[in-house]
Each structure stands twice: as structure tokens, then as C-alpha cells.
Amino acid sequence: xxxxxxxxxxxxxxxxxxxxxxxxxxxxxxxxxxxxxxxxxxxxxxxxxxxxxxxxxxxxxxxxxxxxxxxxxxxxxxxxxxxxxxxxxxxxxxxxxxxxxxxxxxxxxxxxxxxxxxxxxxxxxxxxxxxxxxxxxxxxxxxxxxxxxxxxxxxxxxxxxxxxxx
Length: 166
Prior knowledge:
Layout: H1 14-17, H2 23-49, H3 56-74, H4 79-92, H5 106-111, H6 117-132, H7 142-165
Helix pairs in contact: 2-3, 3-4, 6-7
């Protein structure tokens, strides 16, 4: 593996790509981001105030979706930040249409699916898989199996306790 390649994440910012971009490509990327930064809110306002045969919540969600699509395509801000911003806009504009006397707040409804125990199970599995990458090089020694057993015991006991108490 060369020094210029970093393992792990796939998203690279414009600053990280500067070494491989020509000056013309760099100008294009900068213009694309600047235009997207301006065009995103304009697309949001057009979709929000455009008279469409939709319910108000659906129209608001369509406006947020158009804003998000413009920001994703232009990469005006990093893609993961755009995703979280779209969720925050759903809460700010009360897209779930929660009334003042409702049991759940808009944030509970919008972000509720991220609190599912299965999501934490997947996150734990990804962490264990990432931790086992250097250990796979020691598979031929008995030390690797001791370390794997210790990791499984340390990580599975809280998971099992959480499942039992839930």
C-alpha cells in the first residue's frame, strides 16, 4: 500500500484531493460547491412555496429533499453533514406534524429509528470486525484466539445484559 492511500473512509474533501486535481479541475470543483451552496436554499424555497397538490407536511418534506439533493450533488458541505442537516430540518419544520399535546416530540419521531437496538448491534459488529483486522495476522499463534475470546467476553457481556434488561 502506498503512502498516499489512506485506509478506511471513502469520502475525501477538496483539500485532500488537491494533490491529484489539475488547476482546471480544482476551479470546477470550487465553482460547483459555490453554486450548490447558493442553489440549495433557492431550491428549498421554490419547493416550499410552489403551489403543489400536496399536504403541507409532504410539501415541506419535498422542499427539504430538494435542498438535500442539491447539496449532495454539489458537495457544498460534506455529505454526512448534509444528511444530518436534512434530519435537523425535518425537526425544525415539524415534518411529522406533532401537535402541542403529543407524547413524542418531533425529534423523537425523526431520530427514533436511529435508536433501534438493531442499529447498535450492527455498530458493535462493525467495531468488533475492525478490531479483528490486525488480529487476523496472528491467527497461526494461540495468542490470537486468546485475544479474540477476551474481546468477545468484554463486548458480549454488556450486550447480553442490555438484552436481558430490555
